[in-house]
């Protein structure tokens, strides 16, 4: 399996949730103590988060970390079918 689809799909999910929560990339990065370019790379599927980063992002967005993963899994399942 090509795991690039996971990074790209996670990025799309992150961006969607971020926008729904009213965060710019810069605001999310500042509140997570990350660089804005890192958030951009995550959303473009060029990087993947560590577990610690995933938890920081989820906490900042006031969602469970599992929601980011579950939404990613749902979208991947649709793509694979």
Q: Major sheet: size, sense and barrel closure?
A: none
Question: Gyration radius, to the nearest Å?
Answer: 12 Å
User: What is the chains' assembly state?
Assistant: single chain
Compute the average pLDDT: 94
**Count of beta strands:** 0
Number of helices: 5
Derived structural class: mainly alpha
- What spatial form do the alpha-carbon principal axes imply? globular
Strand content: under 5%
Order of helices and strands: HHHHH
Regions with pLDDT < 50 over 5+ consecutive residues? none
Distance between the ends: 14 Å
Give a description of the structure.
- This protein has 81 residues and is mainly α.
- The protein has helices at 4-20, 25-32, 36-43, 51-61, 65-80.
- Helix 1 (4-20) crosses helix 5 and helix 2 (25-32) packs across helix 4.
- The longest helix has 17 residues, at 4-20.
Question: Which helices and strands, and how do they pair?
Answer:
Layout lengths: L3 H17 L4 H8 L3 H8 L7 H11 L3 H16 L1
Q: Keywords for this structure?
A:
single chain, globular, 5 helices, 81 residues, mainly alpha
Task: Give a brief description.
With 81 residues, this protein is mainly alpha-helical. The protein has helices at residues 4-20, 25-32, 36-43, 51-61, 65-80. The mean pLDDT is 94.
């Amino acid at each position: 399996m090509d795991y690039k689809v996971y990074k790209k799909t996670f990025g799309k999910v992150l961006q969607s949730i971020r926008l729904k929560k009213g965060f710019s990339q810069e605001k999310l990065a500042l509140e997570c103590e990350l660089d804005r370019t890192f958030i951009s790379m995550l959303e473009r599927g060029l990087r993947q988060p560590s577990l610690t980063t995933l938890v920081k992002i989820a906490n900042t967005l006031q969602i469970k970390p599992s929601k980011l993963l579950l939404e990613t899994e749902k979208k991947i399942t649709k793509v694979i079918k």
